[in-house]
Design brief:
This protein has 144 residues and is α+β, with helices and mostly antiparallel strands. It has six helices and five strands, in the order αααβββαααββ.
Length: 144
């Protein structure tokens, strides 16, 4: 299935999340995912990943490749979920939405479901950050 034209296109349907998912994301939020050195930030993602894998009863590795502090458009766009090797790889930039998108794939979601799940969860958990994003095709990018 192809990507939606925009996040708004798939977010018209409300997504209901498990309370444990919201709790895990709120704990992640409290940890300050955008603060600290890269290694400290990676640990925060690893803790979130462990929590979500436990909640959804899936076993995926989370790996990081070429992580830097870059913020250019699409900087995390080459991240992926490989269902054959049961691996989520975050590349180039630590992005909460990108991680959630790839995790949605690990749960079996196609592109439209992954965009809906990740963007809806991000918007609910980080409403103040969501307001600073704009749609660039199916991706949300920071505008300010």
């Amino acid at each position: 299935m192809s990507y939606p034209d925009s996040a708004a296109e798939v977010m018209q349907t409300e997504v209901r999340f498990k309370q444990s998912t919201l709790d895990a994301l709120n704990l992640f939020k409290e940890s300050g995912p955008w603060t600290g050195k890269i290694r400290e930030r990676i640990i925060k993602y690893e803790l979130l990943h462990e929590a979500l894998c436990n909640i959804y009863n899936i076993d995926y590795r989370l790996v990081f490749e070429n992580i830097r502090l870059g913020r250019g458009p699409g900087a995390s766009g080459s991240s992926y979920c490989n269902r054959m090797t049961r691996t989520i790889c975050l590349k180039n930039k630590l992005s909460v939405i990108t991680y959630l998108h790839e995790f949605a794939h690990a749960m079996g979601g196609n592109e439209r479901r992954a965009v809906r799940w990740s963007c809806s969860l991000y918007k609910q958990t980080f409403p103040e950050k969501w307001e600073a994003l704009s749609s660039n095709a199916h991706m949300m990018v920071r505008i300010r």
